[in-house]
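Hi there,

I know you've been waiting on this one. I reran it after we fixed the sequence typo, so this is the corrected version. Both the input and the resulting structure follow.
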Amino acid sequence: MQDWLTTSAADLGRGIETGRIDPVALTRTFLDAIEAHDLRNRIYARVTHDRALAEARAARARARTGRRLSPLDGVPISWKDLFDTAGVGTEAGSRLLDGRVPDADAAVLVTATAMGTVCLGKTHLSEFAFSGLGYNPMTATPPNVNDPGAVPGGSSSGAAASVAFGLAPIGIGSDTGGSVRIPAAWNDLVGLKTTAGRITSTLLAHWPARSRMRVWFWLCWREGAHLTCGGSL
């Protein structure tokens, strides 16, 4: 099961499809890895343990009856703490939003959930997503996989770290002026930046002036010249 921590999301999805991988066991493997990791509190702001297991159990039931929702049904994902998550603190890396708990999921999270993906938790970021360095003295500065004492790039710093340290097969973040490209490059990952406006920015904990500029991306492993996430929202 430890091999799952370095297996691509696409291969994890194929394993679920063929019955070789149980979504609940897969999710527990990642949750246990997060809990055991020395740097977890610099990577994850919050872990959605109960939601993850509930979604994994639903994915297992669908897989057993041939009703999978997508190739990534049952695959765990980390989420930048910019995306509203119902009943879970969403603070955009700022103490100004300390204690903010939204009532509904962001539209992009709703879409991902409809695909059957499993929400592992919320990752740290630059405050209000305004830094290409990934430095955040207000909450936490995630580690760089090449040097844990160095900045990881931002603003989706925790998203990158969650994938680079094997604590999520995919990390969801956002990019206005480099927030996917910088942490992907600095942590030896592949980052996919989607076209602006392709995905709605409804229900995000960010400043409205930036809402029309945001695009969403996946942070994935690089294996040679191959992209390993195998999908998009």
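Quick highlight: The CA atoms of residues 5 and 99 lie 31 Å apart.

Best,
R. S.
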